[in-house]
Amino acid sequence: MKSIYTCPYCGAKSFNPWKKAFAGGLRTKGKVCMECGQHCVNGVASMIFSAVVYIAALVVVLLVYFKGNSNWDYVYMVGAVAAAFVLCRLFDAFFGPLVKPIRNDVLS
Ligand SMILES: [Zn+2]
Asked: Mean pLDDT, to the nearest integer, of 39-52?
């Protein structure tokens, strides 16, 4: 089985969960493979997951903003965004393969 930590260019298993979690999405520069020096990013699954999670977080923030009336509203809103960020990093760390970025400026 092909590892999700395998570089899409050279096939070396040069990523770990921590490094992959911060490799970023398709439209970012990604992280450089230690073996071949090419940029690798998290793929479409990661992009879809983060979109869904951030929309959910946004809904929570708006609900709290308009409906909330406790002193903790601000904490809930920040917490929702922080939770979304952590969820996305966890997803990137353990799910979805690494792919080549679609940005042209990182290929040169
Ligand atoms: Zn590589």
From this structure: 96
Report CA(91)–ligand 1 centroid distance (Å).
21
Residues whose CB is less than 8 angstroms from the CB of residue 101 and which lie 6 or more positions away in sequence, other chains included: 26, 27, 28, 29, 30, 39, 40, 41, 107
Residue 64 C-alpha to ligand 1 middle, in angstroms? Answer: 44
75-100 pLDDT per residue, tens: 999 999 999 999 999 999 999 999 99
* Average pLDDT over the chain, rounded to an integer: 93
Distances (CA, A) of 45 to 21, 42, 64, 105: 13, 8, 29, 23
Where exactly are the structural domains of the chain? Answer: 17-99
User: Cα(63) to centroid of ligand 1, in Å?
Assistant: 44
